[in-house]
Amino acid sequence: MAEKIVVIGAGPGGYVAALRAAQLGGEVTVVEKEHPGGTCLNWGCIPSKIMKTSADLFLKTKEARAYGIKIDGNVAVDMAAIMARKQQIVETQRKGILALLKKSNVQFEQGRGYIKEQGVISVADDNCWEKEIHYDRLILAVGTEPLNISDFPFDGEQILSSNDLLNLQTLPQSMVIVGGGVIGCEFACILSALGVEVTVVEAMDRLLPLPSVDEACSKILQREMKKRKIKFITDQVVEKAEKTGASLTITLGVSPFADEKRKARIKPVTLTAEKMAVCIGRSALSGDLGLENIGLDLDDRGWIPVNQGMETGVDGVYAIGDILGPRHIMLAHVASHEGMVAAVSAMGGSDVMDYTAVPGAIFTMPEIGNVGITEAQAREQGLSVTCSSVNFRTLGKAQAMGEIAGEAKIVADADTGKVLGVHIIGPHATDLIAEGTLAVTKGLTVTDLADTIHAHPTLAEIMFEVSLCAAGTPLHS
To answer: Is 423 a catalytic residue?
Structure first.
């Protein structure tokens, strides 16, 4: 008899886990309380990239004369049309996921999943309909939601979550974005390109203060944001936001993360903006699942601990995706790989999840792609490394596109030339990082990359040029 696998959550981790489990011979059911695709498709990766595509095109039309294109008449942003296009694409993708599940004989159940006891879950909807499903193995892929701050809670009108930003029907004249991480910086670039006056407030001393993001990428992004007149304030936090009619008065204070020297230089700041978006974290959706009924313990923030095979502390119960928390890497493509590992484990295999070569993709303007360790991490680990970088302006394709800002950087072992990290900021960096990811995954050297023929004229030549530089034989840099 086939193993009965139930997956709660149909995001990029959950539906992939279901497909893989079905391929391995499982009898699989997916339970989803909202729409297939999870946060990524409905409230994150895809909608924000749809908005970014419109923002990029709008910027290009404003710069059209520089490319020899004359546009007569007014060019303006139509947010309602952007949102309609977003909805159409999202719905198409949802249907695609459902079609994949159906093709693999995966049962899809719409409703809230609740664990009644070991081996049994119930699925209920708002009309009090309820159904019991028995399982041999359970995979939890329930995800997260935007973190709501009690001092300035979301109201959907003036104080917005990242979800609210993806439903804007009209653009405000001004906006303060709280948090200069990935989500905050992406929206800052998108909204500024669409004509909003944007200020970013970040508690750390740089934008994108993530260990995986090389400091050089942050510096270049900050420089380019200044050129686009995006204001940003570091080492400060929002203490309060008061509504004054149609505007917000936002008071900033010194960040607890600022060092003593910076604290002495920081002066009180008050900002006025039409809206404020809070983009400073996610909270676990592990409540109301009935986890206590099977004795599954959470950590103090509601995250679910797992081992390398994605199994929780309860036999036969697995967890994947963002619900694992920041100790793991909270990215859609990571969730998908965790889902495949969990499916194999649930079906009796022994896969383990490897996080050593996970690419990051940040859709700012310019984009950022990264994989492996940064220069700072290498120094902290006491490694002997060489670091080489090449500017995009050296590429003919970048010049032709008119997108010359940015650089590619390789962190390599000083003795062997093995590629330990690749960090790219520039046009299509999120696509270009794939080569770097392959190099780190397979333990390739800078010479391996330099000996690889790269087509001309392409942006991919940036990897050729930087690997030549790292190998000590630069041609154009």
So the answer is: no
